[in-house]
Amino acid sequence: MERRQFLVTVIRGTAIASLAAVGCRGTQHAKVMSATTPDLVGNKAAGAETWEPLIQTTVSQLLGREMTQIAEILPAGHLEDNHPKKRICFVGVENKSAEEIGDFREQIYQKIDTCVGQSEMFDMVTRRAVEAGLHACQLRPDDLFVPANRRKFAATMEQSDTPFDYLMYATITSGSTSGTKSSQRDYMLTLELIDMASGRSDKESAELRKAYSKSKLALHNK
Predict the structure, then answer these.
(1) 176-197 exposure pattern, b = at least 16 Cβ within 10 A, e = fewer
(2) pTM assigned to the model
(3) Domains located in the chain, CATH noted
(4) Residue 37, Cα to own-chain centre: how many angstroms?
(5) Contact 190/58 with Cβ under 8 angstroms?
(6) pLDDT digits (tens, 9 = 90+) for 30-63
(7) ∠168-174-177 over CA atoms, to 5°?
(8) CA-CA distances (angstroms) from residue 133 to 15, 75, 168, 190?
(9) For residues 34 and 28, what is the distance between their CA atoms, to the nearest angstrom?
């Protein structure tokens, strides 16, 4: 009887310990990251560590070139005379990559919007106005590549007191390379800016390569 009671006690103790271990493994922990803490690196798909540098590079270089173009046209010293900011109509982010970007689509939109808003010479048309204009014209963002549709959209925006000087598109693409035990994906963000007055188009792209592997050692050896 004592032997049976002992076995029952041992089995119960083992079960409780196992459940406690499972509970510990299933617990989620978190901490607030400081502004200087590096972004976590996603082990299955692109994340903040990918999109943040791509956005900073494309926006700064594209708008930098456009500022140079404007400076060459304006009279000397005119940039300092409270010249009104040029307005950019950003019509969205198109994902043509191999990955679903989920909630990062909205993040990318907002980060590009913020970067443009911080420039000295450019400002963004509000998103609500852009969506209302597209709805009124019954157009999708990619329809605006057709000049006649652009003119129709621009006229509608003018009537609603939200004129703009440029259209901006963002496109995400990717290229994948598979090895025996690891793989590489090249992420590219492309921004296109169309001058509504001249029809001139300018593009800027930035690329980031990322390696994936089930072996941590294999990643460190790359």
Answers:
(1) eeeeeebeebebbbbbbbbbbe
(2) 0.73
(3) 48-125+164-220 (3.40.50)
(4) 20
(5) yes
(6) 555 554 555 555 544 555 567 888 999 999 999 9
(7) 165
(8) 63, 34, 15, 24
(9) 20
